[in-house]
Each structure stands twice: as C-alpha cells, then as structure tokens.
Write a structure and sequence with these properties.
Order of helices and strands: EEEHEEHEHHHEHEHEEHHEHEEHHE
CATH architecture of the largest domain: 3-Layer(aba) Sandwich
Mean pLDDT: 87
Low-confidence stretches: none
CATH topology of the largest domain: Rossmann fold
Strand content: 25-35%
Number of helices: 12
Structural class: alpha/beta
Radius of gyration: 24 Å
Distance between the termini: 38 Å
CATH class of the largest domain: Alpha Beta
Oligomer: single chain
Strand order of the largest sheet: 6-7-8-3-9-10
Number of strands: 14
Helix content: 25-40%
Number of domains: 2
Largest sheet: 6 strands, mixed
Amino acid sequence: MITATALRKVFPGNKNRAEVHALDGIDLTVPAGVIHGIVGQSGAGKSTLIRCLTALERPTSGSVTVDGQELTNLAETDLRAARRRIGVVFQHVHLLEQRTALANIAQPLAIVGVPRAQREQRARDLLELVGLQGREGSYPSELSGGQRQRVGIARALAAEPPVLLLDEPTSALDGQTTRQVLELVRELRKRLGITVVIITHEMSVVREVCDTVSLIEAGKITQEGTVADVVQDGTTPLGRALVPAPEIILDDIPPLLEFSFTSRNSDIGQTLQSVTEIIGTEILSATVETLGGEQVARVQLAVTDVESAGGVGAVQNQLDAAGVQVTS
C-alpha cells in the first residue's frame, strides 16, 4: 500500500548553516490494512518523512508509491489528484475557525466541486462515524481538543482515501482523550479497511494501537517489524522502550539480570513461577503487557545470594533453561 525506496531528502546549506540530511536512504513498506507506527525523537526526520509520503515535499532522490501510484515524478495537476487519495491530519488540526464542524468536513469536497447536498450528507455521515453526531453546527472554538481531532480525522476521510496519515495525533491530549482517539483509529481501520500510518514519539501510542512499527534515527530507519516481534527482543532500544522495566532505586544494588519473554514461546505464569524458584534470587520488578495479541513480560532479577545461587552464570543458565532471554 505504501512503499518508500532509497528515500533521501537534503536541505541545502548556506553561509550560516551546513546542509541537512533529513532523510538518508529510507526504505519503508506498509502493507494494506495495517496500523503502522513511525517513532523517533525530535529531529529524527519524522516530519520530513510524512511530508515526503504525502508528496508535500519532493525528495532529493528515491521514490514513494501509495496505493499503486508512484508520486515522486508526477506533474503538479496529477499530484493534486493523487493527494486526495491520502488523508492527512497534522499535529495541529488546522480547522477553519469561521466554519462549523460540518462545513470544515465538507470543505475538501467543495474544493473539487461535489454538489452541496451530496457533500453535506457525506459530512454528516462522517460526523456520526467519528462520534460527533449532533455537533454539526459547532464551531472549532466550541469543541474540545479531542473533538477537534475527530473533526480533523473526519475531514481527512471526506474523499474516501485508502490511506490515513496521522502526525502526532495525541501529543496535546490528556490520557482519557488519547485512549478515545486511538480507539476511534482502531475502529476506523476495522470498519473502512484503511491503512493508517501514525507518526509519534509516544511509545504508549504504539503499544495501544499499532500492528507494526519503525524506529527512525538521524534520518535512517534503524529497526522495524511487527510490534510483537520487536518487543520479544529486549536487547534493542525499541524493544526496551516499548516495554520498559520499572526504574529501581536501591542504596546497594546486587547483581541484576534483566530479561524478557513472550507468550509466543512460553506460558507467562509458569515461567514467572519457575523464576521465583531459583535459589539465591529475588524478583525486583516485573512488567507484563499485551501487545500485538501477545503477552510480553520484562523482569529484573536480583542475585541476592551469589554463593547459594552458585554464581551469576549459574542463574543465567537456569534462565536459559526456563526459556527467557537475558538482556543485561
């Protein structure tokens, strides 16, 4: 559904600054019907990537294909038509303040000449779809942050695009509203069969709603895969960030082993029970999450009595026998 190949974007320098390699050989494939998260810190290249995926920014080199159409070399007229096949909601939902929610949603259809009655009916249907029926006449100033986000999503869906790109959709929302917006995204994928790409720096968003994920660092994708596959390997930065072990503050820290395992290859309860039976050790923290349809456990185990345990190496051997992966 979405493919980026060898994507590079270089912003030229001048006498006051060096050139910036915002994207440096990005290869990305997002299959149809999945919710894909792209995560990274500020300055990693996330915003440039979404602008290239929507052809708002032309890459320096490489190609972008969306829904079978290569966008990079399209003429401007064809490009405008292609963009209507991509719904986009940017971080700050720029609604027209002098227009009602209904008029904001209908605006993209008005631009392309859809008759008034037809576009207003489409807008009403979308308001109902995003759970805002009855707010047709509300102006943006009368809506909460979550409601404005819902109007933005409805507007992005007005032309029935097969792809929806969301740029930091929850960054300004409280916890409850965030969960509501992410549940809406999940429901839209289920009902409409759309492909969703979420640009975010929040790991909680990936844990909550994404099927697959890519980590972008310094303009490169350094890790990607299904969420379940990524969190299974606790040795990687992304795997550890998605299911972090709780911070432990102790005056005197004994030898500490951190490990992870999933329900894919072990029974979570039985494995934890076997770990508690290792002589000379104590579980200091344990986190269990359900991600991608699988349970994932991250555990920190202290070797409190090295002598009775037979040494740290012996404990590691017992963990290996229990089917867990020691990461540190």
